[in-house]
Amino acid sequence: MAANGSLMHAIVYHGPGRKAWKEVPKPVIEEDTDAVVKVDSVTICGTDLHILKGDVAAVTDGRILGHEAVGTVEQVGSGVKNVRPGDRVLVSCITACGSCRFCREGSYGQCIGGGGWILGHRIDGTQAEYVRVPFADTSTYPVPEGVTDEEVLMLADIGPTGYEVGVLNGRVSPGDVVAVVGAGPVGLSAIMGAKLFSPSHVVAIDLADARREAAKQFGADLTIDPAREDAVEVLRGLTDGLGADVAIEAVGVAATFELCAALVRPGGRVANVGVHGGPASLDLENLWIRNVTITTGLVDTYSTPTLLKLLATHQVDLARFVTHRFPMDDFLEAYDTFSRAADTGALKVVVSS
């Protein structure tokens, strides 16, 4: 559906459990560093489901959801230097002012100059026919020749999230045994990223049959259904009783974080990637004496240029993430399919104009 004049359609949040595909004003340039991008392809993130559960209080009634898109630049502000109308761009889930102390360190997710995770969170997002992108020069990336919208869309969020917050924060190294708890899209991204570092074993742990099967396709050497097997005992059996070198939490609930803490060996690393809506127990009385390192993090997207190179040279296969496709007018059906992933087998859904 094409936008009509100054109006467009978008997914609008109306409080926990409530959203609508409705007509809203089309965005306009507000700052001279903005771009307005026509959304060609967009996806839904597990974080959007957390928002709809009420886990993210900063998202208020009337917010357009979404923080991932590939699109065509329609208009730019007078201060934009590197992005021009007609350019095909990846809209990153993280917006970077480029000049604050955190951006200068590459910690774009912590930007204090007006960026960070703002799309679909503190300002209107990408699940719409058009989106306003602040700091366009530092918050969009040219799409490489020879790759599809669907492939590059996977680098808006899940690609760098699994890679940075899981693999790099967890310091995955050659020969490591890596346990990934949760084989949803971000967990699968972590599996794919871990394989770049030649671990001895990647073990995926998930309750859903379809997601364990997907984990095998993405490179997992072993999968575990924690309802049928004791994951801790399986990992100890692989490691002479020690446990995993790295445990990556990719769900965002207390039980999976606590499982990761139980899976890891003395001196090992727990990398929490999942978005948590409540507290989890931290058994410091057991962890401190075992020298366990725990990392957390919002993605910074500093790895996006590297991942774009790997995509352009076909060293990573991101097209396999996409399991379902919808036109814009079926956005609510796309949400239903993605939210019932255990039944539908959805990994990533793509909604295109």
Automatic annotation (TrEMBL):
Domain Alcohol dehydrogenase-like N-terminal: 32-137
Organism, as annotated: Terrabacter lapilli
Cofactor(s) listed in the protein's UniProt record: Zn(2+)
Coiled-coil segments: none
The organism's place on the tree of life at top rank: Bacteria
Keywords: Metal-binding, Oxidoreductase, Zinc
Keyword Glycoprotein: no
Protein known as: Zinc-dependent alcohol dehydrogenase family protein
Span of domain Alcohol dehydrogenase-like C-terminal: 185-312
Family: Belongs to the zinc-containing alcohol dehydrogenase family.
Record-linked CDD domains: FDH_like_ADH2
Transmembrane parts of this sequence: none
